Amino acid sequence: MPVALVQIALFLIIIRSVHMTFQLLRRPKKPWLDLLHYVSVAVVAVSFLLQ
Q1: What are phi and psi of 4, to 5 degrees?
Q2: Model's pTM, two decimal places?
Q3: Residues contacting residue 30 through CB under 8 Å, at least 6 positions apart
Q4: Which uninterrupted H or E stretch holds 31?
Q5: Are 39 and 16 in contact (CB under 8 A)?
Q6: Cβ of 21: how many Cβ atoms within 10 Å?
Q7: How confident is the model over 3-51, as pLDDT tens digits?
């Protein structure tokens, strides 16, 4: 059961990061450091999920 919980948590992290990335991309003045943060969190979560 703990493995399933971790996978669900990683999936939620990916969804939240992608959502926030698109939200920030729609702004006229883009906060690049925040964008890079959310993209990197999504990449790390995907890498953990695929292991």
Answers
A1: -65, -40
A2: 0.89
A3: 24
A4: none
A5: no
A6: 18
A7: 999 999 999 999 999 999 999 999 999 999 999 999 999 999 999 999 8
